[in-house]
Amino acid sequence: MSLTRRNILTGAAVAALASQLPVRVAFAQDKTIRFSLPMDFTRVYTFVTSEYSQGQRDYISLINGRGGIGGYTIVPDVSDHANDQPRAIEAYERGKSQGAVLIDPLSTPVARALVPRVLADKINMVTAFSGRSDAADGTAFPYVFPLSPNYWTQSGLLIDFFKQQDGGSLQGKTIAFVHIDTPFGKEPLPILEKLAEKEGYKLVAFPYTPPGNDQSAIWPQVRRARPDWVMFWGAGVGQTVALTEAARNGLDMSRVSGSVWVSESDMDVVGRDQTVGVLKVEPCASGRDPKIIQDILSEVVGTGKGAGPEDKVGTAYYNYGVMITALMLEGVRRAVEIAPDGPVSGEWLNAGLNSITDYTAEGLIPSTTITPEDHQGGGMARIARWTGERFEPVTDWFSANQDVVWEEVRKYSEEFKKTGN
Is the peptide bond before 227 cis (omega within 30 degrees of 0)? Predict the structure, then answer.
């Protein structure tokens, strides 16, 4: 079955998806590795899920088409949890009963709800660009893997970039932080506040009511604050409205930056020319130039096996899906090296994930090393600028302010060790 955006979003296809994918193959074949991929295709995270999932499934098809990994075939079990915790838990339990060794829910509330279960069941959970930032601490969360720069790291990277652009000092500068008024939107605040004390800038926060489709009262206040830099932090409609209002209020778009949640689709909604100069955190290369994306185009899409619209191949969110799945499968490769004959289990894959070393996915991502202590992978990314046609990197891969980030990580992870919260 070739799963497209259209049939993902139809109720009949979602309901039938689990039965149409080769669910029972894991029990019929000796060398099968099952990933449970329940995500929100229909409610909150629709702005990213289809492209992210398409990238995941295309990369799995690429590797399976080459014979798998050490003779193992990867079986993705895709379903829709609609960001509903009971449905997500049901999908998790179904995956567990079918032998899944990894789950990727791509949802912060779902990931938080599943933490106790994955720790107890020893099933690896990927929380890329979502979930708890303190899950970077593998000693507290041994089966939770962000595998990507968390929100604390992303905010630290942006502050460092602003500092370098302003001659190495932010003393006396004003940074506006426009954010959705949710736990996700507030997540960077502890890091921004600590760095304000360290670097001497003034932080002015402007929360807006979710989902963010009306920010008209916020942005005139931002303009009047005369910020040197603006950081906007939301998702979906909140991002496009923020960009629209920033442009409408005459802000210098070259000094406006978002997190990883800025995409080509956002620019299409606002107007590609209206958003020239906008910055974002880029965890992996975008576009079609990376070798892995070229291989997918020739070996998967070109042979009629693509999981969705060809024009989405190479978008930011598609490449995020490829990035994270490449790391998952590198974990499988390492697990096969350690124990070629398994047995395949969560613990088996965990050993592989924790031994990923200097992995770059053939140039798609910065050098990434996962250890039992660091499940974030080093906290490297780069800053990219919108040209009107594409995101172009304006820095090399770098990490910054990790001392401040890890102080915060350990503060909360130690509390989790004590209380479970």
Answer: no
Spatial distance between the Cα atoms of 33 and 39, rounded to a whole number of angstroms: 19
Which of the following CATH numbers is that of domain 151-282+381-419: 3.40.50.2300, 3.40.1080.10, 3.40.50.150, 2.60.120.1440?
3.40.50.2300
By CB neighbour count within 10 A (0-12 exposed, 13-18 middle, 19+ buried), where does 289 fall? exposed
DSSP code at position 218:
T
Report how far residue 12's alpha carbon sits from residue 20's, in angstroms, rounded to the nearest whole number: 11
| DSSP3 helix / strand / coil % (the chain, rounded to 5) | 45, 15, 40
Per-residue pLDDT of the chain (421 residues; tens, 9 = 90+): 333 333 334 333 433 333 334 333 344 346 999 999 999 999 988 999 999 999 999 999 999 999 999 999 999 999 999 999 999 999 999 999 999 999 999 999 999 999 999 999 999 999 999 999 999 999 999 999 999 999 999 999 999 999 999 999 999 999 999 999 998 999 999 999 999 999 999 999 999 999 999 999 999 999 999 999 999 999 889 999 999 999 999 999 999 999 999 999 999 999 999 999 999 999 999 999 999 999 999 999 999 999 999 999 999 999 999 999 999 999 999 999 999 999 999 999 999 999 999 999 999 999 999 999 999 999 999 999 999 999 999 999 999 999 999 999 999 999 999 999 9
CB 37 within 8 Å of CB 78: yes
**CA atoms of 289 and 294, how far apart (whole Å):** 7
- 368 DSSP β-pair partners: 359
* Cβ-contact 141, 375 below 8 angstroms: yes
